[in-house]
Design a protein that fits this description.
Helices cover 50% and strands 14% of the residues. The chain is α+β, with helices and mostly antiparallel strands and 84 residues long. The protein binds zinc ion.
C-alpha cells in the first residue's frame, strides 16, 4: 500500500512536470511564430519605406516624417535624377 502512495505521488509529479513542459513548448512556439507582416508605406518624398503606423499621411500620400509631408512629394523625374 505504501508503494502505491509513492507511485501516485510520482505519477502526479510527473504529470505536473509534463504539463508545464508542454506549456513552455507552446509558449516558445508562439514566440517563434512569424509575426503578421506590418504594412509599410513608401515616403513620397524620399522613397524610404516606413511602417504605416510611423508614417505620416498627407493629401492621400505617405511620408516618412512630418518634415517630408510638409515638403511634399517629389516628382519621379526629380527623384531619379542624378543631381541630388
Ligand atoms: Zn521621407
Amino acid at each position: 500500500m505504501k508503494y502505491l502512495v509513492v507511485l501516485a505521488v510520482v505519477a502526479i509529479a510527473f504529470w505536473i512536470w509534463n504539463s508545464k513542459r508542454k506549456d513552455a513548448l507552446r509558449e516558445r512556439r508562439a514566440a517563434q511564430a512569424p509575426r503578421v507582416p506590418q504594412a509599410t508605406v513608401r515616403c513620397a518624398h524620399c522613397g524610404v519605406h516606413v511602417v504605416r503606423q510611423e508614417g505620416v499621411q498627407h493629401d492621400g500620400q505617405w511620408f516618412c516624417s512630418k518634415d517630408h509631408a510638409r515638403k511634399g512629394a517629389r516628382s519621379p523625374a526629380e527623384h531619379s535624377g542624378a543631381s541630388s
